[in-house]
C-alpha cells in the first residue's frame, strides 16, 4: 500500500512508523465512514498527506495523535465537499451485511455491539472508537478533537451509557 517513505517516517531501528498504525487508522476510518471502500480510500489519502508533510512529530505519542488528526481532518474535508456538491444522503450509513454464524456467542455479541455502535450518533461512535477501539488515551483523544480531557471523559461516559441502553 505504501511504496516509498521519507526518513522522517522511519524509526531509529529502521521500522516504518506509519505502517504500525495502518490497521488502527483503518478501524477509526471505518467508524467514521461506515463503508470499507471509503475507509480504505480515507486511510490512503491520509497516509499520502502524512508522507508529504514537511514537519513530522518526533516522539511516538505525538506522531500517533498527528496521524489520527490527519485522518479525521481528511474525513471532515471530504464530507464537507460531498455536502457542498450534493445534498443527497451518504451511502456510508448503510447497514453492513450480516455474516452467517452457528451459535457463536462471542460473534453474536461482537455483531450486536457493532450494530448498535453504528446506530449511535456520530459523536458517540467517534469517541468510543477513539478510546475503546483505537486505544487512544483521554489526553490523545482530547488533542485530536481539540477539546479538554474532561470533555472527552464526559463524552465517553455518555456514549458508553447510550451504547449499554441500546444493547438492553
Structure explained in plain terms:
It is built from seven helices and no strands. The chain is mainly α and 168 residues long. The longest helix is centred in the middle third of the chain and has 26 residues, at 60-85. The radius of gyration is 17 Å and the shape is globular. It starts with 16 loop residues before the first helix and ends with a helix.
Key traits:
168 residues, mainly alpha, Rna Polymerase Sigma Factor, Chain: A, 2 domains, globular
Instruction: Quote the CATH topology of the largest domain.
Output: Rna Polymerase Sigma Factor, Chain: A
How many helix segments?
7
Order of helices and strands: HHHHHHH
Please state the second-level CATH architecture of the largest domain: Orthogonal Bundle
Number of beta strands: 0
What value does the Rg take, in angstroms? Answer: 17 Å
Average pLDDT for all residues: 79
First-last Cα distance: 41 Å
Q: Any idea what the shape is?
A: globular
What is the CATH domain class of the largest domain?
Mainly Alpha
Unreliable segments of 5+ consecutive residues: 1-8, 87-95
What's the multimeric state? single chain
Number of domains: 2
